[in-house]
Amino acid sequence: MKINPAPDSHVPFCPVRCSLSNGVNIERAKASSGFSHTIFKAYDIRGIYPTEINEEAAYKIGRAFVQFLSKFIRHPKIVVGRDNRISSPALFRALIKGITAQKSDVVNIGLSTSPMLYFAAAHYEYDGGVQITASHNSFQYNGFKLVRKKAIPISEKTGLRTIQQLTRKLQGHSLCNLGCQGSRGRIIKKEILKDYLNFNFRETETWKLKPFKIVIDTANAVPGILIPDFKKRMPGKIYSPFKNLDGNFPNHNPDPLVKENLKFLQEEIKRKKADLGIAFDGDGDRIVFLDEKGNIISGDLICALISDLILKKNPGSKILYDIRSSNVLKETIEKARGIPLIGRVGHSFIKERMRKENILFAGEFSSHYYHRDHYFCEAPLFVLFRILEELSQTGKKFSETIKPFRKYFHSGEINFKVRDKMEILKKLEGSFGTRKILKIDGLRIDFKDWWFSVRPSNTEPLLRLVIEAKTKKLMEKKKKEISKLIQNIY
Q1: 292: closest CA among 201, 385, 401, 206?
Q2: For position 21, what pLDDT does the model report?
Q3: Average pLDDT over residues 48-72
Q4: Residues of the chain with CATH 3.30.310.50
Q5: What is the structure's pLDDT at 4?
Q6: Residues annotated as part of the active site
Q7: What are the tens digits of pLDDT across the range 440-480?
Q8: What global pTM score does this model have?
Q9: 421, 470 in Cβ contact below 8 A?
Q10: Which fold is adopted by the domain 298-405?
Q11: Residue 34 pLDDT
């Protein structure tokens, strides 16, 4: 571990000066002196760089974050990681200027995935953490994911709005006005990749794994830092197109839920005659699986498979899944003598409930997976290794392993752009009379042979519809009916 003083603490820090040292012109640096408060979202902070989010925003958010955490502990020690977007180094420098200006220490873990940042915050017991990332968004975006002690996420309802208000009060506390302000916090450099991987590999006997052929697409994003160690520790052959880090994401956007972004991976699986394919998103907290035929496996089916596996060793445990997930998940958990729980979409809601109810495992339709022993945080590698173990033990192909869970026909999410989400939900609810409706996240109504859910997006003027049925014909029929009903309402 290396400890450095805060950079240039004796010299006034200015975004123009820092930008010039990195080859960015003065005009762009001056343009970044203001920022948009619309960057504060439901779960994180995110916007287009530099017009919406920039160095000025990062500096004030750093100061405000320390002020927020100071309600719980004086001079909190904050761990900071970042993805490899072009704007991430500049935002990092400004953020730590803000944190250290409040006399708090920064633990700099450098390039990291979001799960690595959460691991660092919880495992080393830091007082808070910031991951600089815009997740799956395109290269123009950047942002911040904030956590408290134990890697507890800070969302709109648990502190983000307070931090936003604190940034508004920091008038006169800009980067260009920052001079010598007495003692400031330190910057501590710490390498955590080895510890993080050892933590994830600890329950995996790699010598028992078959020598699989695996294609891993990291989309030139920060999960690429995992690949060299995978190749050293895992038997078989790992093909890693787009493993080289490039913050412009030149080959495709790092969003594996968009089918277009998986086309190359599907073709590469077939070309290499691979056993399976994996795609990470831009900050590595989502992992999408494809079988040996290149077929995409939805997150709820992966969750069903993992639930079945872990309940064999942990009968009676609670498994949480979101409202969009297939009925096969509930049926699988019950059959494996587990306790199925349905909940809201969103990592902050899931993590909060897991802690309160001591839930062992959770999965989202969007391919986020969480584990109690991973500090109730995203555990993509845990899921990967359990799948590899199962395929090794049974000798079955991935498509054969997942086939029993493909019982129903699922529409996936269908988006409707609307003006008044809540008004439409109210009218939609009235259309089904006295039928029992689950309202933990929008509406979900279950019928004998099918069900549907409609929920409002937390970040966009969208309603998201999902339908599942026992037959494809029924699913398509109900999709048309419910879509028409929503369209007639708005």
Answers
A1: 401
A2: 35
A3: 97
A4: 409-489
A5: 46
A6: 135
A7: 999 999 999 999 999 998 777 899 999 999 999 999 999 99
A8: 0.91
A9: no
A10: Alpha-D-Glucose-1,6-Bisphosphate; Chain A, domain 3 (3.40.120)
A11: 76
The dihedral region occupied by 190, where left means phi > 0, alpha psi between -120 and 50, and beta the remainder, is beta
Summary mean pLDDT of the chain: 91
**CATH 3.40.120.10 domain residues, the chain:** 2-194, 212-296, 298-405
Going by pLDDT thresholds of 50, 70 and 90, the confidence category of residue 176 is: low
Q: Which of 117, 31, 43, 90 is nearest to 351 (CA)?
A: 43
3-class SS letters over the chain: CEEECCCCCCCCECHHHHHHHCCCCHHHHHHCCCCCHHHECCCCEEEECCCCCCHHHHHHHHHHHHHHHCCCCCCCCEEEEECCCCCHHHHHHHHHHHHHHCCCCEEEEEECCHHHHHHHHHHCCCCEEEEECCCCCCCCEEEEEEEEHHHCECCHHHHHHHHHHHHHCCCCCCHHHECCCCCCCCEEECCCHHHHHHHHHCCCCHHHCCCCEEEEECCCCHHHHHHHHHHHHCCCEEECCCCCCCCCCCCCCCCCCCHHHHHHHHHHHHHHCCCEEEEECCCCCCEEEECCCCCEECHHHHHHHHHHHHHCCCCCCEEEEECCCCHHHHHHHHHCCCEEEEECCCHHHHHHHHHHHCCCEEECCCCCEEEHHHCCEECHHHHHHHHHHHHHHHCCCHHHHHHHHCCCEECCCEEEECCCHHHHHHHHHHCCCCCCCECCCCEEEECCCEEEEEEECCCCCEEEEEEEECCHHHHHHHHHHHHHHHHHHC
| Range among 249-253, 343-347, 419-423 rated most confident | 249-253
339, two tokens: 């306790």
Residues 6+ apart with CB under 8 A from 433: none
Distance CA 422, CA 116 (A): 37
Q: What is the pLDDT of residue 2?
A: 43
> Residues 200-210: what's their mean pLDDT?
95
CATH number for the domain whose boundaries are 212-296: 3.40.120.10
Architecture of domain 409-489: 2-Layer Sandwich (3.30)
CB 450 within 8 A of CB 475: yes
According to CATH, the topology of domain 2-194 is Alpha-D-Glucose-1,6-Bisphosphate; Chain A, domain 3 (3.40.120)
pLDDT in tens, 386-405: 999 999 999 999 999 999 99
pLDDT at 273 over 90: yes
Measured between alpha carbons, how far apart are the two ends of the chain, in Å? 58
